[in-house]
Amino acid sequence: MASENQFSNFIDEVLVASENLFSIFIMLSPRQVLDTYYLEARRDLLEIAALLDRYDAAVEREGAPADDEETLDILRRALAHLADSDSPSGERTAALLTLFSEI
């Protein structure tokens, strides 16, 4: 019984902390969002570029693409979706999660 109560208290604390954290991010100005996340986003984009470069080098070395390029196709579709400036605000993440669930 005590462990259930401790677990319940822990869950309550996590929920309160996540709500507080969420409210902090909601209150960032557009400039603050860019200043806060730009370097992380740049790093992630460079990682994706490096992955694609490694794949291309492997294809050139092997003389043929992978037997199944479904994951590569999904990555390319995700990048195209992110590049589409007409994506409704707040729906990019959900769209990518749906896309990645196809794998």
Summarize the structure.
This protein is mainly α and 103 residues long. It has 4 helices and no strands.
What's the N-to-C terminus distance?
42 Å
Number of strands: 0
Shape: extended
Main sheet summary: none
Secondary structure class reads mainly alpha
Q: What's the pLDDT, averaged over the residues?
A: 84
Q: What is the beta-strand fraction?
A: under 5%
Number of helices: 4
Poorly predicted tracts of residues? none
The radius of gyration over CA amounts to 20 Å
Order of helices and strands: HHHH
**Portion in helices:** over 70%
What's the quaternary structure here? Answer: single chain
3D structure, described in words:
The protein has about 100 residues and is mostly helical. The chain has a domain at about 70-103. Helix content is about 80%, strand content about 0%. It is built from four helices and no strands. The protein has helices spanning about 1-25, 30-60, 70-85, 90-100. Helix 3 (about 70-85) packs antiparallel against helix 4 (about 90-100). The longest helix is centred in the middle third of the chain and has 33 residues, at about 30-60. The N and C termini lie far apart (about 40 Å).
